[in-house]
């Protein structure tokens, strides 16, 4: 099973890169964040042409998440919204079953400043996330991936002093991230590579990417019953470079990929004609009109 999580920072602007990623890596599952797409503008047709079904929670200009699955595996049992999240209209959580595995794409709030209401909301979101992840892990194999906007340790920050007093590396955020792991999960990349930085985000400004001034804030968290099947994980830095797909500017994130030694089984929506499929849909706290699925 090959998975990708990728904060695209606007799917409309980055669609050529996503399509190039699908062609090059042929992943089974792709988890997207910051799609910044309206429900009606989500590019289902283009993704279907590439051989993927998509379930999305789209919220317009900001946020937005999606799960893509190979059409021959299907995308089923879709749930959008996270019970207990403080701002359910922000389009930050979508679950689906692909090939018999539950997969989740999540975009955790940034938090802005530690003295802001947004920071308090971020902590509440992480707590709600931990509760849901525990329930999912108790039910079967699951992978939760996305931009979690937390650097769990100082190894995940190019300069810990630079973030001192700011978000992403505070003790409350780190405690809540540990709570996600304690809910029954393993950080796939860190488990395989305990001493590598694994940065997945670099500021657009100041040549941060070329200088190596990055953060590790994108994760694939696998439930413990399948975590030991992980054989590889890596950041595809090429997709952070403007030259990789010249017709589109890169996101400020690079995709994180992982391989798990799992055999996937086609689900009810599996098809050779993805453009004609509408799978079953359910909703969590989000409004039904925010969910798109084809």
TrEMBL record:
Site (Interaction with DNA substrate): 253
UniProt-listed GO biological process terms: DNA repair
Sequence ranges assigned to domain Endonuclease/exonuclease/phosphatase in this UniProt record: 4-253
CDD domains (UniProt xref): ExoIII-like_AP-endo
PROSITE patterns reported in the protein's UniProt record: AP_NUCLEASE_F1_1, AP_NUCLEASE_F1_4
Manner of cofactor binding, per the entry note: Probably binds two magnesium or manganese ions per subunit.
Region span, Disordered: 263-294
Family that this chain belongs to: Belongs to the DNA repair enzymes AP/ExoA family.
The protein, known as: Exodeoxyribonuclease III
Species name: Euzebya pacifica
Native organism taxonomy: Bacteria, Bacillati, Actinomycetota, Nitriliruptoria, Euzebyales
